[in-house]
Amino acid sequence: MPLTLVHARYQLLETIRVPIAVVGSAFFPAAAMLFFVVPFAGDDAVAATYATASMVVFSIMVSSLFTFGVGVADDRSQPWDGFTRTLPAGPGPRFAGRILAGMAMTLVSLVPVLLVAALLTAATVSATGLLLGLCAVFVGALPFTLMGLAIGYALPLKAALVVCQVVFFPLAVGGGLMSSPDEAPRFIEVIAPYLPTRGAVELMWAAVGDYPPQARSLLMLAVWTLAAAAAALSAYRRDEGRRFR
Amino acid sequence: MILAAAVEVSRSYGDVRALDRVSIRVEEGELVGLLGPNGAGKSTLINLLTGVRRPDSGRVELCGGDPRDPRSRRALGVTPQETGLPATLKVGEVVDFVAAHHPDPVPRAELLDRFGLADLARRQTGGLSGGQKRRLAIALAFVGRPRIVVLDEPTTGLDVEARRGLWDAIEAFHAAGGTVLLSSHYLEEIEALARRVVVLGGGRVLADDTVAAVRDVVGVRRVSVTVSGVLPDLPGVVAVERDGDRAHLLTTDADALVRALVTSTVDFRQLEVRPTSLEEAFLALTRPVPATA
Fold this sequence. Notes:
The complex is a heterodimer. Chain A is mainly alpha-helical. Chain A is built from ten helices and no strands. Chain A has helices spanning 2-16, 19-41, 45-76, 79-84, 91-120, 127-154, 157-174, 186-191, 196-208, 215-238. The longest helix of chain A has 32 residues, at 45-76. Chain B has two domains: 2-215, Rossmann fold; 221-275, no CATH class. Chain B is 29% helix and 31% strand. Chains A and B meet through helix 1 and helix 4 of A and helix 2 of B.
């Protein structure tokens, strides 16, 4: 679909023209690696690998939520957005182009995480594991991408910013991203399977290690993805650009 | 063929009724002006006709279909507001982006040349002057070889020369058979371009007539005097408002009215003659008062 690529290309162009934005999205996960993973789990190959995988999921979650939640809300506040709605294209290419561009930015933001893991920790991964991990990135990013889109299309910019911030923290901690697979506090073990972050990180752990993913977590990941897709679609349909009272 | 139509369309934002049962039809080949003060509902009507927003009630139609259906917008050209260009993109990129949505776009060089932007293709839009941005915005409406263009206040904030240049471009498009719906709050601009004008005020259609007919209405003057007694019958008065001793007479011929006032025996003070605003003229004429045009 060439129009999708056109939209993706222009999204990326706009991002790249403000280089600090690229640096920003890559900095946070890399810094988290340096402060939380390297000093605590750096020497243990298995722990470092799992921790890196968790950090990757953390990174794609934050990047997806904010890129789409805040990015879409910001775009909607621009008059240019109203103009693009008068062009003869349905929502498909815009939606898909945005997702493609977001995925590309997410991958860029993962590079420093992987570099830190490879150079400063004992984390290891086979070529197959890396490839599987890449697939897990795409599957795991989906619910957060859709959640971001739902937030971005439903809320004005300032509200979207707050909601993204409020949403990402419980998802990260509650999903067990801050602890290794079976050492999380008891209450997190209880709630984690019901959060999309857990399903995503279990996929990642399974890809790069020999963690057996739980059916319940994966099912809930699918449920969250579908629910987020429905919410995003409904928010998009109701959206008419800026709303004033 | 009717290219754009609104039938009994209403739209509110919260408690504010922006459009109240508005109907308008634009036939192929027409150049219709949409005139009205700020807040009259012009932009809302345009947003409905171009598929950006949907009406609360009533029906809108574009090129025979629902404007919210992308297929109906294939033959539509719209101008973004001047401030709305993506600042980091270059002029040529913005044109290419819009062109990618159309099956047979005007080649970039030809379009930029036509709007005097040929030297600016590699500049970021954020660095353009107000006039250049405005020209680019209007050029974007013509990228897809439209049958109908909708221009929302296209020349607001431009100097006279730049305005003439854009008027020429719009006239050339119309002369070649193009249909134009153009909003403005300058009567002068509508007069220069349109044959027909629809006047909006307070979310309603106040007039839908030839430019000449509307100009006569807008040419109404307000003559105010303070009188203690009763006013005699005066020529050319279309509406009278009394505010205690103060009488405001709306007239199409202020000269004749003042002459008649002076020669009459009425004892008046504080004579004041001033033009009415568009809004005043139309509200006065549409308000249910005894005297009408």
